[in-house]
């Protein structure tokens, strides 16, 4: 079948007031657009914050974003909106960060090549050389930044310089270093991490070991945006799997691998498709 | 906290065309309404069927449905809409049908009394006397219609006469008789059944016995609208649970009870809240 | 069909050594028993702790436990076993503790009356009068022990005196008071609590409120044995359900109710059937 | 840590009688073995079929299987056992069959290389050239047997000749041809297939299309042994995932890929570890 025509995604957040949906949908109509999907959420019945994700396409190909934007800008100003307009045919650029474990990396690359993740991957960054061959197998540039206690700040500056102009968002695919504050500042709401526990349980290091010690009957994984506070950023997605008394730490890690890659893949996909809006330390996810 | 003000739910289906959302939301705005939740779905990107569920409230209490309806009727006609407007403060009337198994009945009654199901229950109908005491415990009228091979048509006529004017929809909470065509005709899209398998597997009688024979590793339950074709109506909700080689038929039934009551409760709740739209033999469920 | 003949459950824990299974199964054989189910677990391949649950029945009704015990006692001494022998036809006595929320209580009582839980219920204890009618509906004695800051120790003494000789184990079915140390001492490994979060996340008060604040995408429930450290006892069972940005705290509580009752019911059933062995702060659960 | 010493897995099925466990465990003890895991199952409390999986290791390395076998053979004869003894350090040889879809293949190869699947892979067979590069990337021989209506029998003879002496079992990792009867005869109970539905729903072709048509709310995948009756062999494992009205057939396929690879991987792992016993058209799976 022919490819679906490219759509636009309009993302809005603003104080909830009467008439927003009418005003927005009128702009789309007048600019020749047809809404193909719309999701909205208010944090409260009255007086809350309003979030909207509107996907539309222009019925006449010659119609364009300039026309829409000129109509929409005054509406957005009137309702005090934060907003952005995204084209589905302009894929985001995703930089991958890895260390030694390959399961999340391989899973993301496989989904990318199979067309499931509509994204560009300009480069892979690692603090270990182990996964260079995987990158090579996919024809992707691999940059090694060995990090020790003394050189982290300098190495991170070099990473940031390398990334500048090349990446829209970063995915920490089991990257086992805590990124410094300069990263969080530069890529606010644009760094996705996978943590190998159902947060807020087992924040920090060695969650599987601690899950084993505690004797839990489910283990989990959490994909979240990175903020300055370790493992406390807005959660995008979580899932769990059952374990029992037979499972040693090594078994938890095996079972956890399957969880981690699926939870991370979902979060990355939703981020790419602009389905995730951050609100304080929480997320609205229009799946 | 004070009760939430009553809302309106507007349900629409029509051929998908440009401008529907703008036209509908303008009507709501002009009638003094504020949209608190909106969900929509198109069966195709272009040229499909459009479904919408719009929940709104009037900001001024004196405003009313007459005003809205007079504005909306021409819009609805223009877009060839099937539509209805429902008030959240006018609970539907639910008639329960049971036989001998009590788990679905008790679960629904408990949810109803706890306020989870905003519904009226005018009566309980059964073909067996077993559950009369349960009905009495909740102060609900219980009508026994013993049915054998010869009297089914006549008994069903009497049931229909009893129900007339008393019930908006019927829930078959493990009612172990197949309702005749007169019922399906009278309550089209208004009879919810719980089938104890993950349909379309194990259509018909004795699904747990047949699941055991087949050696499945999951069992399921399915809530669906009743149509003339047995167990083939539009599915509202399904869920499953794991089983293993240790589970005899009796164990499947025990595990299945927990599934059935939860799947049925979800379907009933969504129906009550007008979240389910039927489309051919499928459902759109705005959860 | 006729009822299954009563079985014996033999529970063993001891240092893992060669020959245990042979020695134990020989005792069963010589005492005229036939093993109908056997589960075992070693914490390590070599040098760990060995756990066994052996279910058997005597092929000749006149055979008895005295014979078995006289054969088994020297074996048990030789292998330094902790052990006990339980008859499936001597149901345990379960005392229920409740406060105001009824969902766990009603669920346990329904399972009990339907025959799913082979247990005696001598009494229900509460610190609030709210659920007295539920107890009465099942013909069960209900004892009210109103508790405030000043009288807790005294009230708990009176509860303990009332329970003495009447209860084998206690189930806290959303009992919203922390039991004092005298209880934990007297009923060590015999008090089951349901906590409304996936522990160790949200230990302590108001877990649903805190889950909402944290923006988690799954909520959970945990059944565990009560120890002196709040919410830190051995976990018997956990499960979770998905939530999203639409779920307010009230929605989490509704969804959580279904989780809590199912997780608690499983834990109680496994305890009744002697499937749970405590090992340090962890459990071995032979499901 | 050092590798675990190699264990033996003893698999038994026989008519259930008194004394089996004692007799078997005595043989293990006298041959110098220590039981590290034992699972058993009877199809009925009395008079059923007894299944056992016993994992043990010799405490003295010089002890061996000949000694055990000479002790065990008369016991096995006495109890009319079907049995086999498997060494954990002699990996099975797994031949993979694929067509064009790569997700199951890539997943199995990744698990194999990461050490999760203790197996040898002598070769990959396909009826399409598409996945040759994947095989090459793992250094595995790839054999193309193009099949059309006229040459299937001949091609299958050639495949069988190629496999002879090279493979212990076959995995159909989305191999989209029905294997002929000669295969089923030669590899009885040794061919694992992944079917992309929760069998017995949607037996045969195009299950995702039919699931979409039926409007199900869950889709599933089933790993089973291949028998002469299409999609009706003993089920090893099943799992499901939720779908909704937004999911088109293409979405079901995407979601299904994740299910298929995980369900197949579990089944393959359990088969490799001799955890699956076939009983009529059902399986006992000692996980």
UniProtKB/TrEMBL annotation, chains A, B, C, D:
What name does this protein carry? Answer: Formyltetrahydrofolate deformylase
Q: What does this protein do?
A: Catalyzes the hydrolysis of 10-formyltetrahydrofolate (formyl-FH4) to formate and tetrahydrofolate (FH4).
Q: In which pathway does it act?
A: Purine metabolism; IMP biosynthesis via de novo pathway; formate from 10-formyl-5,6,7,8-tetrahydrofolate: step 1/1
* Molecular function GO labels: formyltetrahydrofolate deformylase activity
Q: Which family does it belong to?
A: Belongs to the PurU family.
PROSITE patterns per record? ACT
Q: Which reaction does it catalyse?
A: (6R)-10-formyltetrahydrofolate + H2O = (6S)-5,6,7,8-tetrahydrofolate + formate + H(+)
Record-listed E.C. numbers: 3.5.1.10
Q: Which gene is the coding source of this polypeptide chain?
A: purU
Signal peptide region? none
Q: Which Pfam families match?
A: Formyl_trans_N (PF00551)
Q: Which HAMAP family match?
A: PurU
Keywords (A to Z) from UniProt: Hydrolase, One-carbon metabolism, Purine biosynthesis
EC class: hydrolase
Q: Which GO terms describe its biological process?
A: 'de novo' IMP biosynthetic process; one-carbon metabolic process
Q: Which residues catalyse the reaction?
A: 231
The residues covered by the ACT domain are 9-90
């Amino acid at each position: 079948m022919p490819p679906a025509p490219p759509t636009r995604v309009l993302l809005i957040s603003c104080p909830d007031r009467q008439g927003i949906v009418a005003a927005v949908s009128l702009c789309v109509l007048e600019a020749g657009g047809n809404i193909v999907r719309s999701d909205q959420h208010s944090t409260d019945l009255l007086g809350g914050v309003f979030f909207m994700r509107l996907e539309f396409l222009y019925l006449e190909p010659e119609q364009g974003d300039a026309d829409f934007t000129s109509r929409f800008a005054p509406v957005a100003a009137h309702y005090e909106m934060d907003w952005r307009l995204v084209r589905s045919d302009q894929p985001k650029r995703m930089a991958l960060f890895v260390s030694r474990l390959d399961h999340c990396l391989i899973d993301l690359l496989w989904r990318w090549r199979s067309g499931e993740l509509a994204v560009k991957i300009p480069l892979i960054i690692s603090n270990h050389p182990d996964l260079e061959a995987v990158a090579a197998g996919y024809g992707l540039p691999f940059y090694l930044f060995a990090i020790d206690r003394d050189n982290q700040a300098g190495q991170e500056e070099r990473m940031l310089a390398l990334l500048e102009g090349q990446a829209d968002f970063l995915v920490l695919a089991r990257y086992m270093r805590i990124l410094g504050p300069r990263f969080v500042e530069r890529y606010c709401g644009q760094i996705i991490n996978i943590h190998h526990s159902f947060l807020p349980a087992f924040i920090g290091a060695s969650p599987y070991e601690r899950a084993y010690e505690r004797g839990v009957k489910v283990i989990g994984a959490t994909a979240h945006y990175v903020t300055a506070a370790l493992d406390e950023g807005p959660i995008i997605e979580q899932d769990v799997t059952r374990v029992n008394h037979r499972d040693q730490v090594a078994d938890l890690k095996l079972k956890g691998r399957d969880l981690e890659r699926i939870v991370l893949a979902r979060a990355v996909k939703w981020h790419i498709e602009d389905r995730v809006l951050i609100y304080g330390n929480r997320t609205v996810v229009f799946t």
